[in-house]
Amino acid sequence: MTVRVAIVLALVVIGSVAFHLLSPWWWTPIASNWGYIDNTITITFWITGVVFAAVVLFMAYCAYRFRHREGSSAAYEPENKRLESWLAVGTAIGVAAMLAPGLVVWSQFVNVPGDATEVEVVGQQWQWSYRLPGKDGRLGATNVKYVTAENPLGLDPKDPHGQDDVIILGDNLHFELGKPVKILLRSLDVLHDFYVPEFRAKMDMIPGSVTYYWLTPTRTGSFEVLCAELCSTGHPYMRGGVVVEAKADYQAWLQQQKTFAELSPPTKASALKKEGVTR
Amino acid sequence: MVDVTHGVAAPVPAAEVGDVELYHPRSWVTKYVFSQDAKVIAIQYSLTALSIGLVALVLSWLMRMQLGFPGLLSFIDADRYYQFITMHGMIMVIYLLTALFLGGFGNYLIPLMLGARDMVFPYVNMLSYWVYLLAVLVLVAGFFVPGGPTGAGWTLYPPQAILDHTPGHQWGIIVMLVSLMLFIIGFTMGGLNYVVTVLQGRTRGMTLMRMPLTVWGIFTATVMALLAFPALFAGSIMMLLDRLLGTSFFMPSIVSMGEQLKYGGGSPILFQHLFWFFGHPEVYIVALPAFGIVSDLISTHARKNIFGYRMMVWAIVAIGALSFVVWAHHMYVSGMNPAFGFFFATTTLIIAIPTAIKVYNWVLTLWRGDIHFTVPMLFALGFIVTFVNGGLTGLFLGNVVVDVPLSDTMFVVAHFHMVMGIAPIMVIFGAIYHWYPKLTGRMLDDALGKLHFWVTFVGAYAIFFPMHYVGLLGVPRRYYEMGQTAFVPSSEHTLNEFITVAALIVGAAQLVFLFNLFWSLRHGRPSGGNPWRATTLEWQTPTTPPPHGNWGKELPVVYRWAYDYSVPGAAEDFLPQNQPPTPQTP
Predict the structure, then answer these.
(1) B499 — contact with chain A (CB < 8 Å)?
(2) What is the distance between the alpha carbons of residues B158 and B270, in angstroms, rounded to a whole number?
(3) Percent above pLDDT 90 for chain B
(4) CA distances from B189 to A230, B224, B324, B357 (A)
(5) How many other CB atoms sit within 10 Å of the CB of residue A90?
(6) How distant, in Å, are the alpha carbons of A11, B60, B69, B278 from that of B460?
(7) I need a surface site. Which of A235, B30, B216, B494 has the fewest CB within 10 A?
(8) Quick one: pLDDT at residue A274?
């Protein structure tokens, strides 16, 4: 009867491994340079999987071999220093084998390559907007105090760098295939998180700060954007889209986009300009 | 040296700390209601925690219904869903697990296991429970205030926690913060008691390195809680001020739905640091008592000394200390300075080493043991499996770059439920089956207990193991519904239905446990004083259940460590801690 426990423990291991191998639920095909992250996950799966199977199978063996029977008794062994030390050292090596590649990849993740172009993503309940630098290659300054119906992203109307910024409202963001891009993240209201599963990367956006991450798109296609940080009731509906395309298509798309100056109603823009002068 | 007594020992006179007549109860009210007896307070804590835990269980059913069968229960709209997940999380982590381990098991076991008559400050101990009860009542009041309880997620991240569009922003969040502050006040009163009792209230011969690991776990967790909870307290006060007086501790300049708010200059991320400075130690505040208790369950029911006792003690202390320098691993993608990632990933993975040592020592205790598959032992085995599983997935999330794709997905939900939900609850059940005879003088029904175990263990594993893969796929957590999403195959929905059905079954199995708890009170098999033939002092009381003052005229004197099971040459396979060494030639 009591052998049952050992069998169930062994079945837990077999079932878990089988589920892992046969499960149709696995990460999405990657569309960025962060295959290193997938590799680190694979290493981690191997090490932790072996440890899990070893520990639980050992338990199953003990549960079978040392189950109580008439007349059986336990050994008396308070300590075994050598065994304890070996186990500690072995664990430390396994941990280092996961941590070392992890830290190397993290250092790549946080160090943006010099040739990356900048894109700004702005989150607000519950929509995504985007801004690209214009011909001057620089994004203009912003502040939430400038946010109005006409200037929904809060660009500083006095900053000349902002005038040629490309503004994308309620539409998809496009990326050029193979071109590293630094994604600057800004929120107007609460925490959000710009999350495209196929890119692997994600980062919270915090009102009052600008956060970032970078990636190189490696596969053309359309991908869904989700919000990954709870942002009140509309959180699950805060969706958007990104399109990765070859250079020519990307340039064609870029030509059709409007700049901040083009979007600002002329009267309003000049009024703001006047206001700027009087200040 | 391991504290094993052999050879001749000098006779030790009995401890002469007399019973104190002063505060013995004089009426039914002071005996059962406003009681200063740690054992009664323990039962009050436990029953309150289990009751509020039932609310959390029902909430988990409701949220699983929404995820598995969206739209079937039409009253669950998005607002309610977020209120349910918030209250479920908060209740489980704080009002159930923390209260039950420290207020429940701590109160019952510390004085009894250490050979003390009671906690050192019985009156403050009583107040601790009543403030806790008040905190629970204020928490429950959240369900009845206008707008309902807060739906900000159990992490209560500002700015959304106090802004419009978050359910419960009217009253719910205020009630939540007040309840948390009350809880912390109540806990501090109890916690100081537990610490001082361990340090000052031990009976003669009970050195620190002879204490059962249960006491070590509860003691270390309490010290940690006393250091960690103040961070949450400070955070709660500041958020309350932001909400009520319009201060801007956590609130930067914000445009909400086109409207400029009157906040500015605050830092949302400051709250996250305060929250997790509490929140990560909190994981171990729940885990360490479970580690301690499960060590004693395994040792007793395998009839073998715990393997590597001193290593186990130092692992508990090391984990407790390290857990204060890992908090920001909850914030890898929060937008904090990314350089922090290097430090916190390293500390987090280092903590895996003492934790792994504990796991090895549990399974090595089974090795060459004499394993009785009692219900407490089954739950202890269930704990090891779920804890190892959840601990290993922690190595994914702790390794900063691996956390990036997995953070805020269902993988995280699966991980923390396995490691700090299912695993500690396994220990709680095992502990209740183990110590119920001491509380009542009767055994819990064995057949019902085994049914309860198998359904809970297999069912909980079936809920949370596959859930990791939903997260790996990329499904975010805290989604009221996924709707049509390109990367999510329809089979994922089938899996969600399966998980929901498993959750309903596991939930129902807890009703069997509740029935057992009440039925055995009258009909359980009489247990006698020491049904498990255990060594620790609580099983050696002159009467069962122990009366106020625990020990009658004289306190027990301790001669040995807590793990003298199957000692070669001994007449029985256990030697109680208060059994004097038999004179013999070494």
Answers:
(1) no
(2) 10
(3) 90
(4) 35, 14, 22, 33
(5) 13
(6) 15, 13, 19, 27
(7) B494
(8) 47
Q: Which residues of chain B have pLDDT under 70?
A: 1-23, 583-586
Residue ranges of chain A whose pLDDT lies below 50: 269, 274, 276-279
Contact B396 A109 (CB under 8 A): no
A8 to B399: CB separation less than 8 angstroms, yes or no: no
Listed residue (A184, A9, A248) closest to B383, CA to CA: A9
Q: Which residue has the tokens 């396995």?
A: B418
B492 close to A (CB below 8 A): yes
The pLDDT, as a whole number, for residue B16 is 57
Cα B228 to Cα B292: distance, rounded to the nearest angstrom: 20
Predicted confidence at residue B7, as pLDDT, reads 47
d(CA B273, CA B267): 10
Distance in angstroms between the alpha carbons of the first and the last residue of chain B: 17
pLDDT digits (tens, 9 = 90+) for B285-322: 999 999 999 999 999 999 999 999 999 999 999 999 99
Q: Enumerate the residues of chain A whose CB falls inside 8 A of the CB of residue B82.
A: 230, 232-233
Residue B577 in contact with residue B210, Cβ under 8 Å?
yes
CA distance B57 to B50: 10
Six token digits for residue B296: 């004693």
In the chain, the amino acid numbered B309 is Y
**Nearest by CB: B370 against A9, A72, A110:** A72
Question: Nearest CA of chain B to the CA of A77: how many Å?
Answer: 7
Is residue B264 within 8 Å of B331, Cβ to Cβ? Answer: no
Provide the 3-class DSSP secondary structure of residue B340.
helix
How far, CA to CA in Å, does B464 sit from each of A245, B11, B69? 38, 55, 18
Q: What is the separation, in whole angstroms, between the first and last Cα of chain A?
A: 87
**pLDDT score at A71:** 84
Residue B329 to residue B336: CA distance in whole angstroms: 11
Chain A residues within an 8 Å CB radius of B399: 40, 44, 98-99, 102
Enumerate the residues of chain B whose CB falls inside 8 A of the CB of residue A192: none
Residue B78 tokens read as 């998005």
The token pair that represents B73 in the structure block: 């229960």
